[in-house]
Amino acid sequence: MLEGPNGQGKTNFLEACYLACTLRPLRAQRLAELVNFGADAARVTAQFEMRGGDRAVEIEIAQGRRVARLDGKPLRDPDELFRELAVVAFTPDDLSLVRAGPDLRRRLLDRAVQNRHPAQLSDARDYLRALKSRNELLRQGAPDALREAFDGPLAQVGARIRLRREEILRELSPFAERAFSQVARGEATLALSYQVAGGDLQPIVGESESALSARLAQGLSARLSRDRLRGFTSVGPHADDLSISLGEKPARAFASQGQARAIVLAFKIGEIENLRAQQGRAPLLLLDDVSSELDPERNAFLMRSLAALAGQVLLTTTDADHLVGALRDARGEAGDVRLYQVRAGRIQAG
Ligand SMILES: Nc1ncnc2c1ncn2[C@@H]1O[C@H](COP(=O)(O)OP(=O)(O)OP(=O)(O)O)[C@@H](O)[C@H]1O
Ligand SMILES: [Mg+2]
Q: What is the pLDDT of residue 247?
């Protein structure tokens, strides 16, 4: 548990942990934001105790690019690292995602996918690169042959990305829906589903990657004339959404603030329980000051769920007494809680 007043570096520390575990930033939009103001580069080093022994991870960010090393050697295949590592982060920003735009919900899904399928990271990068080029060509009114060079890769990688998202939703939904019914007793039931942009591209149970890829390619050409006018690609996983409903109603429009929080809490707990069920161990959990954003009852639920998981949890707070109390209530005693103080970017035990 990391305690410190506002602006001392608690979230920055979790940011570093998240980067070491996923190679992605936690709250920053771009890697460059992780570099100290006025500095050329940022470096994070981390030591992981893994089943196959200890591993040392080193990540350097310079000029917006990232170089990762595992045990001193350049990390070529991120799978080497991620196979052994799952991390779930929960931040106050997450609490707004139910009612926000679809990009935050896609990110929620993709982060959940990355824990199960590390290749999602490089696929997402390839996909975005192809998408940007295709959109650029659409805007320029470039010749068909140029644009078509990107349609194939977009449809192929897009199908992979989308099938993994659908799969993770199928896996974690039962856990999340059960957690929701426990947090929000007596309220409407939670339902999560994958929402596709484009009526002809709806999910088909058991569809293969190549079949979906062919449908996506068809979808791209069917919309070509309209997309040319608008200057962007209107179908594909970048345009899809996670649909969340309470009872029959879309949560995005109708969930109260409290219900929206309960939904996010349930999703995260569902994700953690699913990882434990699939991988036989709990993921590393990063909780950034979430307790202060939840009401006492939901906070108690969160603490009880965490206590039951028995994984490693790093949490930040401005008020450790309050949190230790909630943890003690959940565990019966404070257990092995270690407290660290964060002041002006330095971390000290105590
Ligand atoms: N790239 C950067 N270079 C230097 N300082 C930065 C950078 N990004 C953020 N900071 C600063 O680091 C400080 C610590 O930020 P951080 O978000 O970690 O605080 P915190 O302890 O989590 O505070 P809070 O309790 O308010 O969430 C802030 O003053 C912030 O402005
Ligand atoms: Mg913070």
A: 92
